[in-house]
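Handout, page 2. Input:
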Amino acid sequence: MQIPIARFVLRRPLICVAIFLFVGFLVLAAFPEFFAPFDPSKQSLLERLQPPGSVARIGGGVHWLGTDHLGRDILSGVIHGARGALLVGTSATIAAALVGVTLGLLAGYFGGWLGDLILRIADVQLAFPFFLLAITVAAVLGPSFPVIIGVLALGNWVVYARVVRSETLEIRERVFVEAARAIGAGNARILALHVLPNCIPSIIVLATFNLAYAIILEAGLSFLGLGLNTGAPSWGLMLANGREYVATAWWLATFPGLCIFLVVLSVNILGDFARDELDPRSVQESS
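Output:
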């Protein structure tokens, strides 16, 4: 039963706020040039450490969120930084889901030595402190886009593999799978048309929470100087640059940190909503 938009807004105001925030960040990430009032990389020592709301001394305009220690506009920096955070987070989430779901399907459907091998690989992965591993890999191979995506995917594929494996173990014994085998359907067809569609709700829920986690990890690597070396602003790097000025120029670190907080919070709220709507067990418990 479809709920009208007005009723949905009244019944789920927090969800609507989360959707508004997340869509807003997506729009900023897609079209930062249309919203940024200044060039985020333009430096001017005459404008350094200007407080929020100060008027630019050169060329006019207002620095609504102030300027940093090199005179760069903070608002333009956080707007352009949204692209890197969401692009890396989304790409890493998709990569982790592809690897984890594929291995989880194979481990759950075929079992045997293949399933044991995949589970042992997952156990080895979980045995490493992931953030230390990410720092090591990024430092050795260099903080390029493929390396950062690979590192983040490496740390997140295990949860997909374990969840999908457990669901596949149960789905492969259902009547419709047995019927598909009886009419001669191959394993690939059964996995693609019968097993995987029944795992999609859980995959969607995992992906929402994984996206928030990937954004935090990307910010952490950027904070340490191991983020994308593209010259574009990064929320984590802006936090790192602002930590030395917390007492004298609080806005340098506050606004990038607030952006990370808001986008992660909105994704987590949407993840909770997706879990409630897609997981039949949570619906039964709530009823």
